[in-house]
Amino acid sequence: MSVPSAYLSTGGNVPDWLNKGDNAWQLTAATVVGMQSVPGLVILYGSMVKKKWAVNSAFMAFYAFAAVLICWVTWAYKMSFGEKLLPLWGKAGPALGQSYLLQQALVPATNHYFSDGTLETAAAAPFYPMATIVYFQFVFAAITLILLAGSLLGRMNFIAWMLFVPLWLTFSYTVGAFSLWGGGFLFQWGVIDFAGGFVIHLSSGIAGLTAAYWVGPRLTKDRESFPPNNVLLTLTGAGLIWLGWSGFNGGAPYAANLSASMAVLNTHICAATSLLVWTCLDVFFFKKPSVIGAVQGMITGLVCITPGAGVVQGWAAIVMGVASGSIPWFTMMVLHKRIKLLQRIDDTLGVFHTHAVAGLLGGLLTGIFAEPRLCNLFLAVTNSRGAAYRGEGGVQLGKQIVAALFVIGWNIVVTSIICVVVKFIVPLRMPEEHLLVGDDAVHGEDAYALYGEGEKFDITMHSSPANEMHQYNQHSVVFPIERV
């Protein structure tokens, strides 16, 4: 593709308008966010589930990452950040053409003003190519689907998942992204969602719980005993997620600026506080510190700070960490066991608690702790302030509540419709014989060459290239391996 000479500087290869520092940071931030999914969540899912579901769980995340990218550049990016079709939706279109051009603004030029003439929410105008924004926003879309998958591990039909991913991206994610980030009605209204507490975490948690209802539960045996197959690998995946969150929140201002620095530091302060609070609660009530509990506390802290990472002060990040380490702990460890509806729905990894509850909590706390001067640095939301700062702070909290209700309602309805549609095409749930065996039956592959759950592996039943080569090397001798 040839680039018009007007876009080139006298150097011949660098446009005059390009900010190299911002562009470099944005590409780096996007890459580390992508690493939260691949390999971060791939490793976390593959190691946090029962051994017989390790391959299937990791593959669900791996597939979603690839599928979202193709859908994103083909039509979904423009639906999220393109020209307005509806107040909550952009017009579909490819983002493959003139990606070298300057991204003039991330949102339409429709602006709302306060009575004193100051701009309520301005457009962002980063000085780097559109391709950078397309890439950065892709990794956010991808991780949302992968987080949603955490509610469905251990029983969803993989073919149904293959259909679900593009449908949910198109009819749910793009609506939340456009409404809150891309110039839609919630953005114009001044709702603050710094890096996706509502767009990503609240939506994935609510949609995951809804989809889990339609898919149905795991086998009773799996629900009663579902130990992680590798706790050390779980920590490896969790570590990639934690450090990758620097790009998740630090890239939200679209520039390497003060707001980005505040966001990164606040992110880690909140995550560490939440992890420690969750662990202390485990010790106090269960007499043992839990590694899995610590990972859950880390995640809830990261999720909670996300909607306000760059607009709250450090002391507020600690307060949010205390809340995110205790309130989701209470809903998961206490409330979940007392609410029959939550017990009936099999949310495999507790995504509702770690993402929906923590994301909602973070969005509301942002409405309380958003500091006026820091708000002014982020997308020029000039007159926004949290309720803790008096003035019109209560108005901001009200806006956050309305936005949360919209995201919750939209995801319940749209996710239900998508599941019903997919169910007419293929079963949402695996057949019982696959549920009994796991990865061997679904993919013809095993995560580890270790057998100890009572199942039998017959090499003639599987047709993967690796098995065929193994059978050839054994001169076509069939040898069942008894699991002891």
TrEMBL record:
Q: Which GO terms describe its molecular function?
A: ammonium channel activity
| Gene Ontology CC entries for this record | plasma membrane
**Which ranges does the record mark as transmembrane?**
24-46, 58-77, 133-153, 160-182, 194-216, 228-248, 254-278, 290-309, 315-336, 348-370, 401-426
Q: What Pfam family is a match for this entry? A: Ammonium_transp
Would the keyword Membrane be found if you checked this record's keyword annotation?
yes
PROSITE patterns given in the database record: AMMONIUM_TRANSP
Alphabetized, the UniProt keywords read: Ammonia transport, Membrane, Transmembrane, Transmembrane helix, Transport
> Does the keyword Membrane feature in the UniProt annotation?
yes
Ammonium transporter AmtB-like domain location is 25-448
Membrane topology, as annotated, equals: Multi-pass membrane protein
Localization terms from the record: Cell membrane; Membrane
Tell me its family: Belongs to the ammonia transporter channel (TC 1.A.11.2) family.
Protein name per Swiss-Prot or TrEMBL: Ammonium transporter
Q: Which organism is it from?
A: Ceratopteris richardii (Triangle waterfern)
